[in-house]
Amino acid sequence: MTVSTRAVTGATLPRSIALITVFAALIAVLTMAPAIPVGPLGVPITLQTLGVALTALVLGAKRGFLAVLLYVVLGLAGLPIFARFSGGLGALAAPSAGYLLAFPVAALVTGGLATLALRRTARARGLWLFGAALAGSFLVTHPAGILGMMINGKLSFQAALVADLAYWPGDLVKSALAAALAVGILKAFPALAARNPAGL
Q1: pTM value?
Q2: What topology is assigned to 3-194 in CATH?
């Protein structure tokens, strides 16, 4: 490691840790909004996915993944930061477990795609970020959510798929909102759009 790289790493690590912590807290705060139960299992519509998408779009793959992972780990450790002010390992037995466990991976995918888009073009940023958020949601979160409802909710694949469809309109709206918010944040703090080339 060169002196310059070491200096960059030392300068950015505390900042990265702060960003990871702040965005993990943001997801927790958004989850506190009133949940709307839908479907045969009552898996609620929450603002968790908005928080996950926004975190990934702003922080990128690595820091976004770590922020969302921190949120999930703290919730599983017992902090009441999941939907309906719940927490603890019991969440792993709930029908919504698949969605919850998918969030860090969805952030990794969304953040990676967002970084590629930000590096390649400055045009139509909002549209590209919207696409990145949708990709993380529909390629990772929804399939995992369907699997979770099949395993923990004892639903057939067809029934779980139909139940999952109820969340699609909301995720489209939340992905669009996350992209719009991310464009504003990245415009105000352009260093975030550049990401961090030295690890975190």
Answers
A1: 0.91
A2: Arp2/3 complex 21 kDa subunit ARPC3 (1.10.1760)
Identity of the amino acid at 105: V
The structural domains of the chain, with segments of one domain joined by +, span: 3-194
- pLDDT by residue, tens only, the chain of 200 residues: 444 444 444 458 899 999 999 999 999 999 999 888 887 788 889 999 999 999 999 999 999 999 999 999 999 999 999 999 999 999 999 999 999 999 999 999 999 999 999 988 778 899 999 999 999 999 999 999 999 999 999 999 999 999 999 999 999 999 999 999 999 999 999 888 877 655 56
- Strand ranges inside 20-172, DSSP E: 36-38, 43-45
Q: Residue 4 burial (CB < 10 Å; 0-12/13-18/19+)?
A: exposed
Q: Which residue has the tokens 């919850």?
A: 100
169-172: list long-range contacts, CB under 8 Å, 24+ apart: 170/45, 170/49, 171/49, 171/134, 171/137, 171/138, 171/141, 171/142, 172/134
Query: What's the token pair of residue 166?
Result: 């109820």
> How do strand 36-38 and strand 43-45 relate by DSSP bridges?
antiparallel
Long-range contacts at 90-94 (CB < 8 A, ≥ 24 apart)? 93/152, 94/152
3-state secondary structure labels for all residues of 102-137 = HHHHHHHHHHHHHHHHHHHCCCCHHHHHHHHHHHHH
